[in-house]
Amino acid sequence: MISSLSTISLLLSLCSAVISVDAFFQKLLLPGDVSGPRSIAFDSTGKGFYTGVYGGKILKYTPETGFVDFVYMTTLSKSSLCHGIVGPLLLGFCGRPAGIALNEKTGDLYVADAALGLHVVSPAGGLAVKIADSVDGKPIKNLDGLDVDPTTGVVYFTSLTSNSYPVNRDWPLEDVTGTLYKYDPSTKVVTIVMEGLFRSTGCAVSSNGSFVLVSQLAGHDIKRYWIKGPKAGSSEDFNILINSPESIRRIGSTEKFWVVSAMSYSYGVNQSAVVLDSNGRESRDLQGVSIWEENGDNLVSEVNESNGSLYIGTFTGNYVGIYKLCKP
Ligand SMILES: *[C@@H]1O[C@H](CO)[C@@H](O)[C@H](O)[C@H]1NC(C)=O
Ligand SMILES: *[C@@H]1O[C@H](CO)[C@@H](O)[C@H](O)[C@H]1NC(C)=O
Ligand SMILES: *[C@@H]1O[C@H](CO)[C@@H](O)[C@H](O)[C@H]1NC(C)=O
Ligand SMILES: *[C@@H]1O[C@H](CO)[C@@H](O)[C@H](O)[C@H]1NC(C)=O
């Protein structure tokens, strides 16, 4: 069922030409029948990363150890019942870590679990601790993107839609109930930041904490919500040119972001990943990646940059992809 990314062309302006990337691309295979490394968080020492997979686990990767179990979303996630579970089956029992990000100061790992709500994991790993699965008595559902404000530790996370739909039923187009939430660890309160979003997928906080971005997959835009400064509390369009934007990741301490987008066609999905600057424009030193996946069943969920490479997460694949970037 799971196919690999079939053709990938890497367009590197700094490399002066379109380059075949076979030589640059490496797959880190997940152990056993584990799949779906959807979101990636690098550890603060730069020696490894974490990724959440189907069945409710978060794995830790280092070059020395390979992938090892690091977090269980529930006590069942450890059991054979959840092992290798793919898709929505047992989601509510096993969990499904979607967006993950570290608070680099405390080492706490925050998890937006698609089915189980917002969780946190101590630097020692183990069982994730639930922070919230409702706000003011209303359940928070279908969590997706998550980021931590590097200046305050406040956690921002998105819900694709506040409705529930039967498994395998297409979500109605008119459902515009996505939400951007925030969790303040100092008050332990979750509040709503933006409502009425059209499939809010990714979110990312800028490196100085002045704004948070939220992508609307079906709204075909990225919004900027101001956290600080004269426009604090208001939002505006950040980029309206990227079709179906999904995840957004801040690149380290820069004011730049990797954005993954997807256009569906009846015969497949063409995806691309681009760098946006703090004005929402495609970066001039652009290293765009276009990804053409014939079968469309191994879509790229996320791209972030570390140590001169792109780390690529997928919704259902059995590996994390790594591209060596071409630098001058
Ligand atoms: C970072 O990149 C260098 C050069 O490609 C490589 O030798 C090193 O192992 C990488 N570090 C990690 C933690 O992956
Ligand atoms: C993206 O990668 C950079 C390292 O290059 C890291 O500092 C940053 O925290 C990552 N973003 C997220 C949301 O993990
Ligand atoms: C998808 O991308 C590939 C490679 O960049 C390109 O050859 C193909 O024409 C694109 N397909 C569509 C439908 O845009
Ligand atoms: C944060 O960075 C932005 C550039 O992205 C800059 O315009 C703004 O002045 C900075 N804000 C603060 C509070 O430093």
TrEMBL record:
List the residue ranges forming a coiled coil, or say none: none
Q: Which domain of life is it from?
A: Eukaryota
Location(s), subcellular: Vacuole
Question: Main localization of the protein?
Answer: other
- Mind listing the GO molecular function terms for this protein? hydrolase activity
Q: Where is the signal peptide?
A: 1-23
Question: What Gene3D superfamilies does this protein map onto?
Answer: TolB, C-terminal domain
Which terms in the GO cellular component ontology are assigned? endomembrane system; vacuole
**Which UniProt keywords are listed?**
Glycoprotein, Signal, Vacuole
Outline the extent of the Strictosidine synthase conserved region domain: 144-230
Q: A Pfam family this protein belongs to? A: Str_synth
Q: Family membership, please give it.
A: Belongs to the strictosidine synthase family.
Record protein name field: Strictosidine synthase conserved region domain-containing protein
Source species of the chain: Brassica oleracea var. oleracea
